[in-house]
Amino acid sequence: SVGLELSVNNHAADFTLSTELGPPISLSCLVHNSSQAEELLWYRGDGQVRLKEGNKVNISNICISPVNESDNGVTFTCRLARDKSVQVSVILDVQFPPQLSGEETLRVEVEKDVSLTCNSKSNPQAQSTWLKDNQSLTLQQSHHEVYQTSEIFRLSIKKVQKSDNGTYTCVVESPLGRGTRHFYLIVEDKKPVFPTEAVIAAAVVVSLTILFGIVARKDKIFKVW
What we know:
- It is built from two helices and 16 strands.
- It has two domains: 3-95, Sandwich (Immunoglobulin-like); 103-188, Immunoglobulin-like, CATH 2.60.40.
- The longest helix is centred in the C-terminal third of the chain and has 21 residues, at 196-216.
- 12% of the residues lie in helices and 46% in strands.
- The chain has helices at 196-216, 218-224, and strands at 5-8, 15-20, 25-32, 40-44, 47-48, 59-64, 75-80, 83-95, 103-109, 114-119, 127-132, 135-136, 144-148, 152-157, 166-174, 177-188.
- By secondary structure, the protein is mainly β.
- The protein is elongated, with a radius of gyration of 34 Å.
């Protein structure tokens, strides 16, 4: 394999290919400086791609269709079968806007904690903000907590109060678009706690009283029967 080279889409070295969702893309691998038939292999990440006969020798083509979010960041590699060190890789950079929508109603009692979670992916990474009743939410250090990763944007509210009632909107924006999700937070009064232990204790006392009363009057009861 000395002197043999590969190229993918006319690139003789590893490269990044930017694309968008939907339209298919083709990758063409070609052997250079070969004096005989050379078999080619394709890999998606660590997994080998199955190729049809007639699409393996000296030139090989694969098609990704349709392109979706799961293809973002994936490496496709063309290798020489008899010397896998001869290879060229291409990393897919799939760009797509935030895909975020819908609404949710949450009911929570006063003094309880609640979390509002937006699941959103985008490329390039988007900027995220929270609104309350269509106004920018002012975060209070001991009351609000925001957690964010490339796919999750979460607002936690500790010990909610009646003043926390309202519509919260998760806004995710990137150069390619914008997505929103609405949360209708309803803060309810505390529900009265049923005194289960007290009722059980009372029932035990009543039962024992009745039992002791029966024992104390057993002679009269038997006489009546």
